[in-house]
Amino acid sequence: MKVGIPKGLLYCKYNDFLTVFFSELGAEVVTSEETNKEILDEGVKYCVDEACLPVKIFHGHVSKLKEKCDIIVLPRIMQLYKNEYICPKFCGLPEMVLNSIDNMPPSITDPIYAFSKKSLYNWAKAAGKKITPNSFIVKNAFIKAYDKHLQSTSGIKDEGYDINVALIGHPYNIYDSYVNMNLVNKLNNLGIGVETMEFTQSLSIDLEIEQLFKKPFWTYLKENYGFAANVLKEKNVEGIIYVSSFNCGTDSVIIELIKNISGSFPFLTLKIDEHTGEAGLNTRIEAFADMLERRVHNESNIPTHG
Ligand code: SF4
């Protein structure tokens, strides 16, 4: 049996887990290609206009993959951590896709609660049943996939640059180089190193979150705000770049919260959607890079932030 896994949304975080799990069940795993213009165009064609770019792109991946597999994974991610939630678009993603794209193959849409090994195993039991009736094989596949997941690493921490920025945003905007138009390479070519939130300890993030009037219940709001606040305190980078999806509710809150605490610390927001032009993005990055360079080489002019 061929199991299709679309390379959109949080694929960058769970691909090892899913690939090992379904391969160990005896299925052949097929994925869509890396995001490209054709996938974007398909996503825009099938998805509702009001959705954010990452959800549209997910639709594009599904549309390109659906003919190549016998069953397709449409992850309904509910929770990554206890007492926290993920964007509602993830909870309703299977319905969005199944109502927008015709002639879909059977799909795996069981809810994913990933806050513990036990809760994730509940998903594995439900999903595994669609591939094999043998619960022993499912259990073994899950154990191997979970181990692989624990060993998986992600994140960017460039070394050797005089100027560095914290790159913040949802993983599917940071790690999809088509979506962000090769932002990391562009920054590196301008002499700027990049650091992402995976290298900040969760304890430091939690400490920053405790300073807020109310604990956020959206996981990515907590992580992105906590990372930015920690960077502003440690001053271990020269600037912050936030890659945001146009129409994203959580991003609009996070950006305002970061603005509230960043003072005059360099902070650039890049909003992206399917109409974003590369030339405009380049101009904004180059202007930001120039400003960082001037500040670094003329430190007496740097006002204290906060
Ligand atoms: S968090 Fe924002 S960018 Fe991500 S799926 Fe939800 S609306 Fe889209």
From TrEMBL:
Keyword annotations: Kinase, Transferase
UniProt cross-references to Pfam families, sorted A to Z: DUF2229
Chain ranges of the DUF2229 domain: 2-198
GO molecular function: kinase activity
InterPro entries: CoA_activase_DUF2229, Dehydratase_Activator_Redct
4Fe-4S in keyword set: no
PANTHER family in the cross-refs: BIFUNCTIONAL PROTEIN [INCLUDES 2-HYDROXYACYL-COA DEHYDRATASE (N-TER) AND ITS ACTIVATOR DOMAIN (C_TERM), BIFUNCTIONAL PROTEIN [INCLUDES 2-HYDROXYACYL-COA DEHYDRATASE (N-TER) AND ITS ACTIVATOR DOMAIN (C_TERM)-RELATED
Protein name: Putative nucleotide-binding protein (Sugar kinase/HSP70/actin superfamily)
Native source organism of the sequence: Sedimentibacter saalensis
